[in-house]
Design a protein that fits this description.
The complex is a heterodimer of chains A (330) and B (314).
Chain A lengths: L3 H14 L14 H12 L2 H13 L5 H22 L5 E4 L2 E4 L2 E4 L1 H11 L4 H17 L3 H5 L2 H18 L11 H17 L9 H11 L3 H16 L4 H6 L1 H10 L4 E6 L8 H5 L18 E3 L9 H5 L5 E5 L2 H4 L1
Antiparallel strand pairs in A: 1-2, 2-3, 4-5, 4-6
Helix pairs in contact in A: 4-10, 5-9, 8-11, 9-13, 10-11
Chain B lengths: L2 H7 L17 H4 L17 H26 L2 H5 L14 H7 L5 H5 L5 E3 L11 E3 L14 H5 L45 E5 L13 E3 L9 E2 L10 E2 L5 E3 L4 H5 L6 E7 L5 E7 L8 H5 L7 E5 L6
Antiparallel strand pairs in B: 1-2, 3-10, 4-7, 5-6, 8-9
The chains are: A mainly alpha (330), B alpha+beta (314).
């Protein structure tokens, strides 16, 4: 007999691949305590909730996690730049592969592309890939996206412009089928195998921006990145990160086993959905919709980038960073 | 329904409450929904507007897929033209293997003491981010002694030991380990290189000063040239700008004088078709194709050039 949380765990893996989140309906799909909370919520006076909600929302927006994240992202990328520029040799290389005080670090997706294309793996490549794998298991899979990837930061700013334009009714947001990313992942893997070139690397905005920051030049490649950002501003919100980037999916797979995630506590939640509005991957937050939480505490799935925007936004503190098993250990 | 639609709708559109027989007190409120999960209700037909939206969505998906794949495969374009092959750093695998194995991190760029290595842009297609050397601007003079770029490479794209399954092009292999002139008195005087990067060739013999019997005086490449080289007589460890090391030679032999590989090039007396004798630089088998001769050649455009990826033809 699988528990509701176990079923959700499996469902969230499929959601990462593009499936729409399953809607729990029957009693057996919830824990008894979750049913109790949902029932209590239904019996609460609606006016009371609205009043409390307004009071909470009046609070100043805080940007604690966003600021920490931006600082980390800029610091990490700057460390690459200054390591080369001043030849201090702390973090040599680019995001695709580097050496941190001598230790090989190799991006999982780049390593995968190279292995598939070249079909020959040398020890250093294996060591670097293993190190990065362990590192991102520890710090949360797709946290690579929001805490390290330089394109993510640019895309976040482009997203703000996009949302402003949407508010002004100058553009409309047009979502795309999320399964596309899985298709791209497979296509790029197959292309690497068949052509023998690391095809994805030639268009990867992550690699392009990282190299441009460190080594300069690459004006043409940056034009492609600019084109992507323009597309995101005027047509599809966060198109690359949501619907295309295979790096995100690769790290998402790592996120399946990572103990670091966002945890949702249903009890104090007003279900106003602010978190889903700021989220890059709102499908992982389906559980915050009223009546959907299968347990009183629900961990957010592997596609979550651990960016913390929902944590910042949540007026009730119902979404928090959490390390699985840490509470028990303490 | 899109994610945004759902978000926008907020709590008013909250989903069906959980129900079940285990909680008798709840039954009255949830009774109408009991069993909803067993018999899925028939989907209502889509409205015209929804159908239109769905169609548009499919179109957009196809458009984006096509765009991204098109952009990705445009890497083939430069390969389709017959481009002049790029000079790759020492120890590089053959072109196709280099492009497939290189992870485009630029660690080779970082360790090069003369910054000879550059990374290619998108006009090189799949070669984007892959290292190359523009020898005329800055050649590899091996002033790192140990071929640092090979040591830095995390994927074996630049390597001392080519894996057995990769073929060696005939003529690419060096007959012997190249003797490195700056280290020729050391116990280990050779560079650990098995294949050449290319071969030097006197492509414009008419402009060659040696061929014309002329000498050369001054900065080899003029005052504005930023290329660097390590001169053993000046500093064993530190490369200096070439403009800071002027020459004064009776008969120009800069390419021979500065060649770091023993026996790779020499000035020989050659007989012209009309029977006259001329002095000319002649390239020999040990040439590894590093490009120092091309960088130092004082005439514009250079009389001697590296033919990248060229093999030795006796």
């Amino acid at each position: 007999m699988t528990t509701p949380l176990q079923r959700r765990y499996v469902d969230q893996i499929l959601v990462m691949l593009g499936k729409e989140p399953a809607k729990p309906r029957q009693a057996g799909e919830f824990t008894a305590r979750a049913i109790k909370v949902h029932e209590l919520k239904r019996m609460t006076n609606k006016a009371d909730i609205e009043a409390a909600k307004e009071a909470h929302r009046a609070n100043e927006r805080n940007h604690k996690w966003r600021n920490r994240r931006w600082a980390t992202l800029i610091f990490a990328n700057l460390l690459f730049v200054v390591s080369f520029y001043f030849d201090i040799q702390i973090l040599e290389g680019a995001l695709t592969a580097s050496r941190f005080v001598g230790f090989h670090l190799i991006d999982l997706n780049s390593a995968l592309q190279v292995m598939l294309a070249h079909k020959h793996i040398i020890t250093n490549l294996l060591i670097g890939t293993g190190t990065v794998l362990v590192l991102w298991i520890l710090v949360g899979g797709r946290s690579f996206c929001s805490w390290i990837c330089p394109y993510h930061l640019l895309a976040e700013w482009a997203e703000n412009i996009h949302l402003w334009l949407v508010k002004k009714k100058l553009v409309t947001d047009t979502p795309i089928d999320r399964r596309l990313r899985t298709v791209f992942w497979i296509v790029f893997a197959l292309l690497a195998i068949v052509t023998g070139y690391t095809v994805y690397e030639s268009i990867s905005p992550t690699g392009i921006i990282s190299r441009a920051l460190i080594y300069g030049g690459s004006a043409l490649a940056l034009l492609w990145v600019l084109a992507l950002l323009v597309f995101e501003v005027f047509f599809v919100r966060r198109a690359w990160c949501r619907y295309a980037c295979p790096i995100g999916l690769t790290y998402g797979v790592v996120g399946i086993v990572t103990p670091l995630r966002i945890k949702y506590t249903v009890e104090g939640c007003f279900h106003e959905g602010d978190c889903r509005k700021v989220c890059l991957v709102p499908h992982v937050l389906d559980t915050v919709i009223k009546g959907r939480a299968v347990d009183t505490e629900v961990p957010i799935g592997p596609d979550c980038t651990r960016c913390g925007l929902c944590v910042d936004t949540c007026p009730t503190g119902s979404l928090q960073f959490d390390v699985k098993g840490l509470a028990k250990l303490m | 329904m899109s994610e945004e639609d759902k978000v926008g709708a907020g709590p008013s559109q909250a989903d069906a409450p959980p129900v079940g027989g285990s909680e008798p007190g709840l039954r009255a409120r949830g009774a109408s929904k009991v069993g909803a999960g067993n018999t899925a209700p028939a989907k209502p037909p889509l409205s015209k507007e929804r159908q239109r939206q769905a169609r548009r969505r499919v179109l957009r998906t196809i458009l984006l897929s096509g765009g991204v794949l098109g952009a990705a495969l445009s890497g083939y374009l430069p390969l389709a033209y017959a481009r002049k092959p790029l000079l790759r750093p020492p120890g590089a695998l053959d072109e196709k293997d280099l492009l497939s194995s290189c992870i485009k991190c630029g660690q080779c760029v970082q360790v090069c003491p003369v910054q000879a290595i550059k990374l290619a842009d998108l006009d090189n297609g799949f070669g984007i981010g892959v290292p190359y050397i523009d020898a005329r601007a800055q050649a590899c003079d091996f002033s790192c002694d140990a071929v640092q770029c090979i040591l830095a490479c995390p994927t074996g794209s630049l390597t001392y030991d080519k894996p057995d399954f990769l073929p060696v092009r005939p003529g690419a292999q060096l007959a012997a380990k190249p003797v490195f002139i700056p280290k020729q008195n050391d116990p280990e005087p050779t560079l650990n290189l098995k294949e050449r990067m290319g071969v030097a060739r006197l492509t414009r013999p008419g402009t060659c000063l040696a061929m014309q019997g002329k000498g050369f005086k001054g900065q080899a490449r003029g005052p504005g040239f930023e290329g660097m080289m390590r001169y053993m007589a000046v500093d064993r460890w530190k490369p200096i700008p070439i403009r800071d090391h002027p020459y004064d030679v009776e008969e120009c032999d800069l390419c021979v004088r500065e060649c770091p590989i023993k026996g790779a090039i020499s000035i020989e007396v050659v007989f012209m078709p009309n029977g006259t004798q001329r002095k000319s630089p002649v390239v020999h088998e040990p040439c590894v194709g590093c490009g120092v001769c091309e960088m130092i050649c004082p005439v514009e455009p250079t009389a001697i050039e590296i033919v990248a990826r060229e093999v030795w033809k006796s």
